[in-house]
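Human:
I keep going back and forth on a fold encoding question. Comparing notes only helps if you start from a blank page. Show me how you would write down a chain together with its backbone fold. Write it directly below this note and I will take it from there.

Assistant:
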Amino acid sequence: MLRKCKSEPLLEYLPEELNGNYISHPQPISIFHKLHRISTLSISICIFLYIAIGSISFHFLSHQIKGKKTNGFLDSIYFCIVTITTVGYGDLVPNSVATKLLSCVFIFSGMAIIGLLGIRGADYLIEKQEMLLGQAMILQEEVINPQQFVNEFKTRIVWYKLVREIIFLLVLIVVGIIFLNRVEKMDFVDAFYCVCSTISTLGYGDERFSTKAGRVFAIFWILISTLCLARLFLNVVEVRIEKRRKELVTWIVTKRLWLIS
């Protein structure tokens, strides 16, 4: 490990293959990696506890919830999922003071968890920016060939992640349409309409999962598809960051070479 001054990011020398030759050069590591941050595991635990506590609570109060029901505990889990994802079809509605107050608690709890996901995404983007600063600081002392340095940015990986999320989301959409058509007996237009309103968390409520098998499917599909859409937006931002990153590196290298010459 190397640190040349207190304000400089920690650097670690790692072997990397570049232009057919193995070289060792410093790779920036985020200075925030030892600071407190919201981890993916913490968010996953929060979501699990939210669903578990909510399901048990609403199961005991299921007789105070009106709407089309299929299975007591299954409906409770389904109700928690459509609440935390803010879909809210309206097929299951609190019908007493106790359930309404409990729903308010879980609505704000779900919003808090979604907020944690947003904070985690912000942490990730901040770390990407801090890594860029580290690259620029290394650049001032060690880069000779500008093209060599620019090629180190793995923009193809970022684009690959974006394409992967798009494909995964399209697969989820197709699976959702087929399921709604075959199990919920919707025509393809209504199924596509239901899928779009669900993934976007609009949840108009005119088309929804109403069978027992449909709600089992919805518990997993709604949660995965809404999170996939959020990851897609994050990857779009990351692609933009990588583009600006590459432009900045090219500008710094060009300016440095101009000053040297």
